[in-house]
Amino acid sequence: MNANLKKLTFLVFIFCLNLSAFAQSKNVQLPANWFNLDLQENGYFGISTEKAYRELLKDKKPKQNIIVAVIDGGVDTEHPDLKQVLWTNKKEIPGNGIDDDGNGYIDDIHGWNFIGSKKGNLEFDNLELVRLLRIYRPKYQSTTNLTPLDSTQKEEFKLYKKMVGNFGKKYEDASNTFSVLIAINKVLDSVAKINKKEIPTLADIDQYKADDETEEQVKTIIRKGAKEDGSFEKFYKNIKEGYKQYDAMLKYNLNPKYDMRAELVGDDYSNSYQKDYGNNDVKGPDAFHGTHVSGIIGADRTNSLGILGVANNVRIMAIRVVPTGDERDKDVANGIRYAVDNGARVINMSFGKSYKWDKKAVDSAVKYAEQKGVLLVHAAGNDNQNNDLEENYPNKFFDSKEADAYKTAHKKPSKPDFTPPVAMPQNNGMGMRPPYDRSALVKPIPIDTVKFNLPHASNWIEVGASAYKDDDNLKADFSNYGKYTVDVFAPGFMIKSTVPGNKYEEADGTSMASPVVAGLAALILSYYPDLKPAQVRELIMKSVSKVAHKIKYKNEKGENVRVLFNEICVSGGIVNAYNALKLAENYK
To answer: Which residue from 517, 394, 540 is spatially nearest to 456, judged by alpha carbons?
Structure first.
C-alpha cells in the first residue's frame, strides 16, 4: 500500500470513528412538530408549545404583532408557509426605486441585504481568522519573541501566533475531511454510473466490488452513515452537501487570496458606522439557513402546510448579513440597528465565529438595542466547546475599561519560541526510563467567574441545542455549552422547517435552537407586550424544564464526562413555553 493510500485509509478510519460520537439516534421517525411537543404528554423533550396554546391561550387574544428580525444568510419570502407572516414595510412603495420612508434604504419591503449591491450579492467570504491573518502576516511573519515590540505589538504578535496555529489546524482538518468526502463521492458516483441511476441504493453499494482496501472501508462508512442518519437517502444528501461545504471552505473560507467584498459590496469597509450600502434582495444566493430559522420562529399556524412555528402572532423581518463564511462585524452592527429602527422587538442571531475585528461597533449596536427595548437571542455554536473557556463572537460581554483592566491583571506571560530541555538522569541500566520533570506538568486553571460579571448586555439570551429524548445524550453532541455563558438549551436536533423551493427539511444546530427561543420570546411578548427584554429573559430562564439527571459529552480535553445539566448552562434546563406563559400571568 503506497503512502497516499495509507493516509487516506487512516482518514477513512478516523471519519468512521467520528460517526459514533455521543448523539441520539437519527434512525427514528419524529413528528414534524416535535420541538413544540410536551415531554409528559408526547414523550419528546419539546418546549410544550401546543400544550400552552391548548390550555393557557385558547380563550386569550394576542395584544400585539411582534416583529422578529432574522439576521442570517437570507430568507425565501415566497415560501407558502412564510408569506403570511413576513414583515412588510408599509411606508415603502415596492419597486419604484425611491426611499419612500427616508430610512436610508431603497425598496426595503421585507428587510435589507447588507452584503450586496447593484453588482450582485456576496455569496462567499473568508473566515475572520483568515481576514485577520491577511492584516497581521506582513507585520509579524518574520518576528520572534526576541524582536523589540511595544505593548500593543506584543499583544498583536501573541494573537498572530495563535492564529497561525489555528489556521494550520483548520486547513489540515478541512483538507483531510475533504479527502474522505472525495473518496466517498467517488464510490457513490461509480455505483450510480454502473447501475445507470442518478442516485444509487444501499443494495447497489453492497453489491459493488471495491477496487481496493480504501473503497472497502468507504463502503463501511456508507453503511454506518446510512444507519446513523436514518436512511441511505439522508446520508447521500448529507455527503453531497458536506462535499459542497468543504469545497467552499478550501476555495473561499480558508483561502487568503479570495476577497470579493470591495467588488460585490463596495462599501467603505474601514468606516464602521457607514450604513448606506447593500440592496433589497433579502433572499440572496443561498437562503436555506435563514428560511429554516424563520419557519421555526413563525411558520404559519393557520394553514395546513408543513410545520407550525412557535409564535402565532409574529412578523419575520429578513436581514441578510451572513455569507458562506464568517459574517463581518460592521454588517452585524448595521443589521441590529436596522432591526431596532424598523420596529423589531426580538432579533434572532444564528451565527458566530471565533475571532473579532470590530467588536466595539457590535457592542454599540447591542447597547442601542438594549436602550430601545429589543431582545437579542444568539446561538451558542456547534463546536462542542466550552464557551466559558473559548471565545465565541458576538457575545453579550462588552469591550470596556473594566474588561481591559481584568485582562491586564490576568495576562499570561508569553512563552519563548524555544526552551532548552532540562538535563535529566540517564537510563539506570535496569531498563527503566529516567524520571520525568514534574515541573513540566501544568494543572488546569480553574475558571475565574469574576470575568462573567464584567459589563454586559441585559437583553441577551445565549442558546445551546438539545435533542428529542430525555436521556444522558440530551445535550446535542455538537452543541457548545458553558456553565456561565450559555443561558438555556432548546431543541436543535432533527428540526424540520421551511427551506427554499416550497420545501421542508430537517437540520441540526444551535442555529435551530436559537429561533425556538426567539419564537418563544415573541409568543410571550404578543400576549404581554409591556414586558422589557430583561424581564422576558428572566421569565424564559426561570421557567425552564429542569434536567435532574446527568448527561454525557466530551469535554474540552476530549474526556468522556457525565455532569448535571446545570454544569453546562446557567438555567440548568430546556426552555418551556407552557411554564413561561404560566409564570407570565402573575409576573410583576
So the answer is: 394
**180 is written with which cell numbers?**
474522505
Q: Which residue has the cell 462585524?
A: 329
Bond preceding residue 394 cis, omega within 30 of 0: yes
Locate 82 and state its grid cell: 412564510
**What does DSSP say about strands 460-466 and 120-121: parallel, antiparallel, or unpaired?**
unpaired
421 prior amide bond cis, ω within 30: no
Closest CA to 288 of 506, 549, 480: 506
Is 74 in contact with 320 (CB distance < 8 Å)? yes
Distance CA 35, CA 45 (A): 7
So what's the pLDDT on residue 433? 38
Res 400 pLDDT > 90: yes
CA dihedral 554, 560, 564, 570 (to 10 degrees): -20
- Which of 62, 75, 70, 33 shows the shortest CA–CA distance to 519? 70
Contact 512, 296 (CB under 8 A): yes
pLDDT band (50, 70, 90) for residue 4: very low
pLDDT average, residue stretch 248-265: 98
Q: Is the pTM of this model over 0.85?
A: yes
pLDDT for 413 = 59
Report the half-sphere exposure of 10 (CA within 13 A, side-chain side).
8
Element (H, E) at 49: helix 49-55
pLDDT, residue 583, reads 98
CA distance 389 to 299: 36
588 has a pLDDT exceeding 90: no
Active centre residues (catalytic): 72, 289, 511
Is the Cβ–Cβ distance between 282 and 156 less than 8 Å? no
DSSP one-letter code for 282: S
Closest by CA to 236, choosing from 196, 193, 205, 194, is 205
Q: For residues 210 and 156, is the Cβ–Cβ distance under 8 A?
A: no
Q: Are 45 and 474 in contact (CB under 8 A)?
A: yes
For residues 491 and 476, give the distance between their C-alpha atoms in angstroms, rounded to a whole number: 9
Q: Angle CA(166)–CA(7)–CA(238) in degrees, nearest 5?
A: 70
